[in-house]
Sequence to fold (163 residues):
Amino acid sequence: MRANVSAAMSTAAVRVLKEAGVEFTLHEYEVDADVGEGYGEAVAAAMGVEPERVFKTLLAEVDGTHVVAVVPVSERLSVKALARAAGGKKASMADPADAARLTGYSPGGISPFGQRRRLPTFVDENAERFDSIFVSGGRRGLQVEVAPVDLIRLTGARVAALS
Fold:
């Protein structure tokens, strides 16, 4: 864990990781918010890491039930694969207002850790290729570097091919 976590970096995600005693490193970055669909790749570039190691946290609905999908920013979530992984028939992306209400985070800064409601979580199998990956720390401009095994354990996630 990185020492001297400032108040500005103390999010619900960071608190959950600290309480769990998980090793993690915080990374701050600056990216123009107007990048659009290339935002995740811009985050990876700003931090100097491969886009395959930076994961986005998405909220979706599978047969009317909200779920969380964690996938590399270099890939697109396959809603069909997510539906299969969740044992459902149909999946779609959740409304951003629902995502904020259910997770407690603003879209673009949703972390898989410290969400307001614990939702079924699915992590793309590509996460297991790396010793550590990067996920949102709970706000734009903050990433958490964490071992995939800790992400999976703390969120109760199932690993599946999602992209």
About this structure: The first strand starts at residue 24 and ends at 28. The chain has a mean pLDDT of 92. The two ends are 30 Å apart (CA to CA). The first helix runs from residue 12 to 20.
